[in-house]
Structure formats: structure tokens, C-alpha cells
């Protein structure tokens, strides 16, 4: 995922706002995965529920916004393959190897993503669909309708279909956003409103988390599998979509717009996303507790975004694939 650019004359510079948002978002993702195994504790479960309401929607909204110029050009198609399709294959295999080492079995289904690789597959499909959404009169309404319909029946596990459709509105929302929307969020009074909203969201999560099944925030099962009728399930899903959108807006409102010490780290969040799962698998066996898990999450997210890690794992996360493509010819 690339940060947006601000063009001034012939010089193109990154907008640190988006890099800051992506870094802070990946910290939430890593911390959320590290505390997942401790959800039997009420406080941890509440924090887990709260973070999962908006951390992936945040990433998806940013991905949609930064995909607005995606077209079916040869160059964009090649980038789609080299930054999403090939890393997906690499990490599907990589995350299947521990099961071979620990349990003596190797299971690999390239169309049924394992663990956190679902996001790569879903983002691949969302980006392919970008030109379609840009032609519709009411794209967000259509995306929300598809998301709600997803809950009526169990879709095949292949291509992460349930999550791909259920979380689609956040990608389409990102496509619809314009720079002026983010400028509006950066106003001082919006920063205050965002902080209050995040605080109220946390308070609400502390109050309701025990009565809300965790599967609602994972977006991978139909209404019947969670134990509700379709009318109730549709209303809950609509409420979760709205809550996610509001919390994403609040989070972006409090995100620093200036250049910070972690702005550069926000350019490499895909490294942290794809690699942190190995740290999580080890940490699950250590029983670290909430404070240490959060500290480890911040440290892991930060370390995995550093230039050293990018150099070491560039071959897997951003492989150079020019050798696999034919040369681009300019039309005569």
C-alpha cells in the first residue's frame, strides 16, 4: 500500500498524514493479534473487541483511497501481481510450514487463505473491481447491500468470500473520499471530536463486549452460524459497518498530519503485517499477559517497518518480478 502524494510543481512528496495513519493502524493490528489468545480475561476481551471494530476497516479505507487511480493498464496489472499475488503465494506457504514442523502435516490451499493472508487476497479482488465501482451512481449503497446480503448465507471459503464482500463497503468508501475530506478531519475541533468519539467507543465496548459474540467482528460467518435470524443479523451488521466507519473517521481525526519520527515507518506497513504473524505464534506459547503483549506489539510493529527488515525481506513482500514480464512497448 503506497501513501498518497501531494504534487507541487514538478516535485512529488509523500503526505506524512497517510504514513502516520498506516503506522498507527499496524500497531493496532499487531497488538490485537498478540492479545487474541488472552480473551478469556474480560478487560482483554473488551480491548480486543474495540480494536477489531475498526483496525482492519481503517486499513481498508486507506487502501481504497490510495487505489483511486487503479486502472487495467499493463503497469498496474504487473504491480498487482508483484505486490499482492506473489507475496500471497509466498506467505501462504510460509505460514503453512510451522504446522508441518509442529504437527507433522502440511496443508496448503491457495484459494482458501490461511491466517492473515486473507487481506492480500481480498485487496487483490477489491483493486480489480475498482473501475467498476467508479462507474456506478451509488457505489457505497451497492457495496453495503452486498455486504448485508453476505450474512444471509455461508459463502465458499475460497477467495475469502465472506470477508471480501462483508468488508467491501470500507474499500468503496475509501474510493469515494477526496483530499478535502481528510482536510476537514484535520481541523482542530474535529481532533477534539475524534478523541471524544474514540473514548466513547472504548466505553461502549467495555459495556457490551461480553454480550456480543466475537464472530461478529471477524466478518467470516453468516447470521445463522452466529445464532441470530437474518433480520437481526442484518441490523447488527449495518450497526457494525456504521460503528467501524465512525471510529475510522475519529482515528483519522486524531492522527498527526505533520512529519513524525514514525512517518517513514508508515511506508512499510505491509512488511509488519505479513511478518508479525510469526512473532504472534511464538508469543502465544509464552503467556506474556496484557502489558507485555502491548509492549511487544508496539516494538514488533516498529521493528518490522524499519529499513533493515525491508532489505532482508524485500524478496518476499515486494519481489522484483521484471524478469517474469514481457517488455512494455509504447504504442507507435
Automatic annotation (TrEMBL):
GO terms for molecular function: acyltransferase activity. Keywords: Acyltransferase, Membrane, Transferase, Transmembrane, Transmembrane helix. The chain crosses the membrane at residues 47-68, 80-101, 159-177, 189-212, 232-254, 261-280, 292-313. It comes from the Bacteria. Residues 16-308 form the Acyltransferase domain. Pfam families: Acyl_transf_3. This is Acyltransferase family protein. It comes from Nonomuraea purpurea.
Amino acid at each position: 500500500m503506497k501513501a498518497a502524494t501531494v504534487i507541487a510543481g514538478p516535485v512529488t512528496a509523500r503526505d506524512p498524514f497517510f504514513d502516520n495513519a498506516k503506522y498507527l493502524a499496524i500497531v493496532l493490528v499487531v497488538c490485537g493479534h498478540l492479545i487474541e489468545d488472552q480473551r478469556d480475561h474480560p478487560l482483554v476481551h473488551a480491548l480486543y473487541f474495540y480494536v477489531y471494530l475498526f483496525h482492519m476497516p481503517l486499513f481498508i479505507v486507506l487502501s481504497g483511497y490510495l487505489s483511486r487511480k487503479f486502472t487495467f493498464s499493463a503497469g498496474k496489472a504487473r504491480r498487482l501481481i508483484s505486490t499482492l499475488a506473489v507475496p500471497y503465494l509466498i506467505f501462504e506457504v510460509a505460514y503453512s510450514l510451522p504446522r508441518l514442523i509442529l504437527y507433522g502435516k502440511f496443508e496448503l490451499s491457495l484459494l482458501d487463505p490461511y491466517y492473515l493472508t486473507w487481506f492480500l487476497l481480498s485487496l487483490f479482488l477489491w483493486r480489480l473491481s475498482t473501475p467498476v465501482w467508479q462507474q456506478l451512481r451509488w457505489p457505497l449503497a451497492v457495496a453495503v447491500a452486498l455486504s448485508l446480503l453476505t450474512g444471509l448465507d455461508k459463502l465458499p471459503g475460497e477467495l475469502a468470500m465472506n470477508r471480501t464482500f462483508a468488508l467491501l463497503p470500507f474499500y468503496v468508501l475509501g474510493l469515494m473520499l477526496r483530499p478535502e475530506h481528510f482536510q476537514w478531519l484535520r481541523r482542530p475541533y474535529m481532533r477534539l471530536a475524534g478523541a471524544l468519539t474514540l473514548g466513547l467507543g472504548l466505553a461502549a465496548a467495555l459495556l457490551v463486549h461480553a454480550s456480543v459474540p466475537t464472530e461478529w467482528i471477524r466478518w467470516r460467518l453468516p447470521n445463522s452460524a452466529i445464532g441470530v435470524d437474518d433480520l437481526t443479523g442484518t441490523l447488527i451488521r449495518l450497526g457494525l459497518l456504521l460503528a467501524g466507519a465512525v471510529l475510522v473517521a475519529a482515528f483519522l481525526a486524531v492522527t498527526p498530519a505533520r512529519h513524525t519520527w514514525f512517518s517513514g515507518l508508515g511506508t512499510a506497513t505491509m512488511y509488519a503485517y505479513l511478518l508479525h504473524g510469526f512473532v504472534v505464534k511464538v508469543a502465544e506459547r509464552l503467556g506474556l499477559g496484557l502489558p507485555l503483549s502491548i509492549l511487544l506489539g508496539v516494538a514488533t510493529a516498529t521493528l518490522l517497518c524499519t529499513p533493515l527488515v525491508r532489505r532482508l525481506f524485500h524478496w518476499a513482500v515486494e519481489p522484483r518480478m521484471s524478469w517474469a514480464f514481457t517488455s512494455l512497448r509504447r504504442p507507435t
